[in-house]
């Protein structure tokens, strides 16, 4: 069977900007939004858009991500023909084994997988963005324009434009120039790193790029400029919904807080565009007689006996009586002991915050303030004080942390 469009999801990133949160897992496997992981969003977008063949390209610490995706059943991607496939780097006969050298090289190494399905089009996605998008609309735009490549873009402020790859377009949104983080941007159309290519075109450019020893083997640095230079027709697809690159501590915290926002920046309750995930079997959450929960997301298996405000609690979190959690993200299995205060913090899985400890502080208006982060599986001792912006990657005893 021929597939009209195959999706290739780049999920091998180390996520070094997330520091302690990716010391054990790949960035797309980082928990998000109370019950999800980051990769749930592009996978759900695919099946909701009618794309049922997805290659997930893994590399850095893939074990938990591979286990989480499994056979793809939660996303209706457990298909006998198509479905979801995990695609790690591998050694081919007569070649030296190599990691994926760049985004373009990752696709090049998996050309044989793509050609199994003889697609007309290939959709390239990132595994570390939170958003909802109908890729079928983008594909329709690509076909109507007769383009070799369509790039999804988001309008940003001109002040922010220098932080992005910027697409300069004509009146019909045909791209005539690409600028990588320009000091003086000509437009505010920022690339979202989401591409649709006509496969017959992309295949040729991938092969030429791989033959170039000086290439960085990257879509933004090499493939896109090469296609523009050759005069290929390239168009922009304007996206106007919620989109967040959650590749930094601040952006990950912001995106979780966005889901608590009154205006519903990204709704998880939209039955027409559900976000699917692999959900653990846990009992309902429990609220103690003296518990206080305000404007927060509390998921299955949680036990709350203390006070929780403006926070996101993943499954199996325990907040003991007398503990306070404010503006924080507590990942699965976190325990906050009696008398502890956790505010403006991200606490990774299976971490214990000891009695009367203090993690993070409220904003003080200084440049040194930031979100405190505790890595997975650690113990923060009783009476310990973890300041704002701290990145804790080892067990902490009592007293102030420098």
What are the main properties of this structure?
seven-stranded parallel beta sheet; seven-stranded mixed beta sheet; 27% strand; 402 residues; alpha/beta
**What is the mean pLDDT?**
91
**Can you tell me the residue ranges where pLDDT is under 50 for at least 5 consecutive residues?**
none
E-strand count = 32
Q: Quickly count the helices.
A: 8
Report Rg. 22 Å
Q: Judging from the principal axes of the Cα atoms, what is the shape?
A: globular
Strand percentage lies at 25-35%
| Major sheet description | 7 strands, mixed
Strand order of the largest sheet: 5-4-1-6-11-8-12
Quaternary structure: single chain
Helix vs. strand class? alpha/beta
- How far from one another are the termini? 60 Å
**Into which percent range does the helicity of residues fall?**
10-25%
Structure explained in plain terms:
It is built from 8 helices and 32 strands. The mean pLDDT is 91. The strands form 7 sheets. A 7-stranded mixed sheet has the order 5-4-1-6-11-8-12. The protein has a 7-stranded parallel sheet with strand order 15-18-21-24-27-30-32, with no helix packed on it. The chain has a 6-stranded parallel sheet with strand order 14-17-20-23-26-29, with no helix packed on it. 18% of the residues lie in helices and 27% in strands. The protein has helices spanning 40-48, 63-69, 103-108, 111-116, 135-145, 199-211, 219-229, 249-258; strands spanning 5-10, 31-32, 36-37, 53-57, 83-86, 121-126, 129-131, 149-155, 165-169, 175-180, 189-198, 234-239, 243-245, 286-287, 292-294, 297-298, 303-304, 307-309, 312-313, 318-319, 324-326, 329-330, 335-336, 341-343, 345-347, 352-353, 358-359, 372-374, 379-380, 384-386, 391-392, 399-400. 45% of the residues are buried. It is globular. With 402 residues, the chain is of the alpha/beta class.
């Amino acid at each position: 069977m021929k597939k009209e469009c195959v999706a290739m999801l780049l999920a091998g990133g180390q996520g070094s900007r997330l520091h302690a949160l990716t010391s054990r897992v790949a960035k797309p496997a980082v928990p998000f939004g109370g019950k999800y992981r980051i990769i749930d969003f592009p996978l759900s977008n695919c099946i909701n858009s009618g794309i049922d063949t997805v290659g997930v390209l893994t590399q850095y610490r893939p074990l938990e991500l591979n286990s989480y995706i499994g056979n793809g059943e939660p996303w209706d991607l457990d298909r006998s023909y198509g479905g979801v496939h995990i695609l790690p780097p591998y050694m081919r006969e007569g070649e030296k084994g190599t990691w994926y050298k760049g985004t373009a090289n990752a696709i090049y190494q998996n050309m044989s997988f793509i050609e199994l399905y003889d697609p007309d089009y290939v959709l390239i996605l990132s595994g570390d963005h939170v958003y909802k998008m109908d890729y079928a609309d983008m594909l329709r735009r690509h076909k109507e324009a007769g383009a070799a490549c369509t790039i999804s873009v988001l309008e940003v402020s001109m002040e922010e434009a220098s932080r992005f790859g910027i697409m300069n377009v004509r009146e019909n949104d045909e791209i005539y120039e690409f600028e990588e983080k320009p000091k003086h941007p000509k437009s505010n159309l920022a690339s979202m790193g989401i591409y649709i290519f006509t496969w017959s075109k992309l295949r040729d450019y991938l092969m030429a790029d791989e033959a170039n020893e000086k290439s960085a083997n990257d879509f933004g640095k090499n493939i896109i400029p090469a296609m523009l230079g050759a005069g290929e027709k390239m168009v922009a697809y304007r996206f106007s919904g919620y989109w967040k690159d959650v590749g930094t501590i601040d952006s990950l915290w912001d995106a979780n807080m966005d889901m608590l926002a009154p205006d519903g920046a990204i709704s998880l309750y939209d039955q027409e565009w559900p976000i699917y995930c692999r959900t653990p079997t846990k009992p309902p959450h429990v609220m103690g007689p003296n518990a206080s929960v305000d404007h927060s997301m509390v998921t299955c298996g949680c036990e709350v006996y203390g006070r929780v405000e403006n926070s996101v609690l993943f499954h199996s979190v325990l907040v003991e009586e007398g503990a306070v959690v404010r503006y924080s993200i507590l990942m699965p299995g976190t325990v906050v002991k009696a008398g502890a205060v956790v505010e403006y913090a991200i606490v990774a899985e299976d971490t214990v915050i000891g009695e009367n400890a203090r993690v993070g502080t409220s904003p003080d208006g200084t440049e040194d303030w930031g979100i405190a982060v505790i890595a997975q599986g650690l113990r923060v001792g009783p009476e310990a004080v973890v300041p704002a912006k701290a990145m804790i990657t080892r067990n902490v005893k009592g007293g102030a942390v420098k």
